[in-house]
Fold:
Amino acid sequence: MGKRSLAAIAATLMTAAALAGCAGDDGGDAGGGSGKLVLGFSQVGAESGWRTANTKSIQDSAAASGVDLKFVDAQGKQENQIKAIRSFITQRVDVIAFSPVVESGWDTVLKEAKDADIPVILTDRAIDSPDTSLYKTFIGSDFVLEGKKAGEWLVKEYEGKNDPVNIVELQGTPGAAPANDRKTGFADVIKADPKFKVIASQTGQFTRTDGKQVMETFLKAHPDIDVLYAHNDDMGLGAIEAIEAAGKKPGTDIKIITVDAVKDGMTALAAGKINYIVECSPLLGPQLMDLAKKVNNGEQVEQRVLTEETTFTPEQAKQVLPERKY
Ligand code: AHR
Structure:
């Protein structure tokens, strides 16, 4: 037998031995026998203030509740999340949680997790698979409701006025649940009154930089913008820079509605540069740890765990800002 064939057999035997060491170890061995629950978490990235606060909440809560967290940042790429989930399966973590970059394309990898008997928790964002057996629970906000709240504020703000209201929209990452749903919820509410016209709608990728750039192009193409609806604070904050650079007053010349309510957004709201913020809470860590422990113990959990949220006017922002944690 040649050297290559011997080497190939040795490699196969080593892989088989490694797999055998993992297989059949129902308690999972990713924690190196520490006895701690091992949670593999794949995060979207670090695109916004919201995401930074969400990551901190998850990391702090894991440390506080004795969970061994294997945290992987996907840098906004679905393929990185799929790789991370496969690596969690190979490591035989106890539970996998992730915040899906986009809604579609998860069935294959989640079936692999299911076949490996590793429970999955969707965190923050949903997937569009009809097969709900692929995950144990989904914890996060109702993004459609957030969009509706934004639309309802606008309808009230322009009550009794008949002139057309020209709206520009900065959408989140294409294909992401919060981008799809916030758009839908907002459109559902404003469609009742034809004076509301969305004259431009484009992605700003949930980032400040893109929000600024896209707003610059909106301002050049449309001198008559009345309202900006941004799917998150960061894009709204970038847009404020573009509006000021164009010699206009954000919050007055152009009314601004955003979603999230992170500290920078709330500061701009308190200063009158944003008019209304719909809250989306990033503080999912404590509930996530609790759910991970329950699913690991085989306890029944709700299929959908909703986050409690509110809305803020400039006056309310001034009141809560000193205590705002993120
Ligand atoms: O999925 C939540 C959204 O993702 C936040 O609203 C946005 O800021 C973030 O990037």
User: Anything to note?
Assistant: Confidence is low (pLDDT under 50) at residues 1-28. Residues 247 and 253 are 10 Å apart (CA to CA). The chain has two domains: 33-141+282-308, 143-280. The two ends are 64 Å apart (CA to CA).
